[in-house]
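Quick one, tokens below:
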């Protein structure tokens, strides 16, 4: 009886290992969520390319589509297959007298819309950019939109004001994060894991540029 009891933990361990291998053939631990950069203060966003999403003074208005939160802002524009279209979103300084770039999205070849199918030259699709006012993170819709020629997304992270680890101080740790760890990340949906993607990092601009083949959620993280 004592021998059987001693074998039980070993059998359970082997069964657990077998299930884990079946779900994850590489037997790697699940990836942790990245460290999102946080906005310093409460930014206000402006754009000159989406009048339908702006108030009379050009400031982006909160999105009320989910009926839950007012800390997400949206901008929208029509992308046309075969025509260059873009949107740039800026943010205002705390004093409201200086504008800094936050996001630029440019495309000329939206090719496939889920639920609608392939787009012909001249066909258009409404693209919506939703900004997270807590983290330097955006959602691009319609989700699953695919491009023939990649779209280009540029995100500036200067809005974190140098405090990249969120500890309240700008120091050597933040410099290391910026130079060695920081990158562009994406995930397909809320159930998917975040994954780092190739991107061009400009330290002088404090921005990343990445080519997009399809839409999802994007963030500057480490």
């Amino acid at each position: 009886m004592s021998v059987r009891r001693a074998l039980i933990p070993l059998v359970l361990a082997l069964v657990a290992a077998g299930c884990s291998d079946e779900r994850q053939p590489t037997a790697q631990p699940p990836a942790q969520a990245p460290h999102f950069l946080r906005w310093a203060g409460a930014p206000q966003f402006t754009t000159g390319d989406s009048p339908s999403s702006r108030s009379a003074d050009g400031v982006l208005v909160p999105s009320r589509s989910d009926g839950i939160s007012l800390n997400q802002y949206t901008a929208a524009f029509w992308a046309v297959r075969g025509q260059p279209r873009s949107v740039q979103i800026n943010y205002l300084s705390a004093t409201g007298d200086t504008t800094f770039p936050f996001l630029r999205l440019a495309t000329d070849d939206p090719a496939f819309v889920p639920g609608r199918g392939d787009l012909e030259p001249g066909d258009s699709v409404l693209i919506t950019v939703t900004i997270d006012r807590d983290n330097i993170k955006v959602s691009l819709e319609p989700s699953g939109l695919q491009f023939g020629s990649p779209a280009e997304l540029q995100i500036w992270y200067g809005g974190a004001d140098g405090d990249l680890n969120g500890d309240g101080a700008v120091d050597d740790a933040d410099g290391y994060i910026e130079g060695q760890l920081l990158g562009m990340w994406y995930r397909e949906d809320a159930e998917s894991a975040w994954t780092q993607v190739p991107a061009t990092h400009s330290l002088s601009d404090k921005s990343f540029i990445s080519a997009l083949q399809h839409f999802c959620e994007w963030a500057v993280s480490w």
